[in-house]
Amino acid sequence: MRGRWRRGAAIAIVLAGAAALVFAWDRYSGASEVSGMTGWISPAQRDRLRGIYHQGQARGNLPGVFTLVGDSLSADSRFLKPIARGDYDLGSYGALRATIDAFRRPNGRGELSFGAWSWAVAVGWTAADVLDPARNIAGACAADETPLACEYRTARPGVALITLGTNDVAAGRTADSYRADLTRILDESLAWGVIPVLSTIPPQPLSAERDARVREFNAIVRDLAAEYAIPLWDTWAALQPLPDYGLGVDGVHLNGPPDGRAAVFDAEHLAYGVTVRNLGALDALDMVHRALD
To answer: 85, exposed or middle or buried, with CB in 10 Å at 0-12, 13-18, 19+?
Structure first.
């Protein structure tokens, strides 16, 4: 019974995908609605991303390079790394192959984006940690350089997939502090000419209070994406149809398929959180790639 439910949930996630990744243009273009994940990108939307991208190229950012900014969700070896190893099957999402090929170029450290370990990612990090020079890579970063700035300087990406907030919720940080840190991350990303893609965080159904805080923090993510007119990757929404929301036994981290193949995009594997997040990341990169193409 559970297996059939998982397969049904996986099909539901494909349908939910149309609402899982959106462009937040309410304040930028005056629109009352947002564009869908695979929907039409308006000239204004395209020009916005191209402007950020070309600013970054003028600064020395590299084409075909993205990076990650985040916590254990992004440090997970099941997240995007299988694509670097060629251990993936796009199935009915074959159109994403062009985006994978487009982001196969080496970053400023000579690493391919899908397999690179970002210096702006670490287990247990909050949004504040990404901005704390004490957290940087000693010897590789300047003493007063934040992990975010160090990653942007050395990797020279054009796009950043940003997922932060899970540990902010767990640590009891205030919503105002989280907003302030995420705002600074966006400001610094744009100053470097890096297109920031903001992700909502997964649910935490450990208690009603934790779940309420996740919703509060995700509201901030959505609000900032709208304010800055940048892509919103709604991981929270994408996980809703899955059994146990795609979470592992700890109720915080994402689960994965028993065979370990987290980048196989069929109904069986899309019943698990990490696989859904991998597909969402590719969709996010695809939206940016199509806007820049």
So the answer is: exposed
Cα–Cα distance between 272 and 269 in angstroms, integer? Answer: 6
CATH class for domain 2-292?
Answer: alpha beta
What is the pTM (predicted TM-score) of this model? 0.89
| Residue ranges covered by each domain of the chain | 2-292
Which tens digits make up the pLDDT trace of 85-144? 999 999 999 999 999 999 999 999 999 999 999 999 999 999 999 999 999 999 999 999
DSSP string, 63-88: TT-EEEEESHHHH-TTSSHHHHHT--
Single out the residue of 125, 236, 219, 118 nearest to residue 170, CA to CA: 125
Tens-digit pLDDT profile for residues 191-217: 999 999 999 999 999 999 999 999 999
6-to-202, 280, 282 alpha-carbon distances in Å: 18, 18, 22
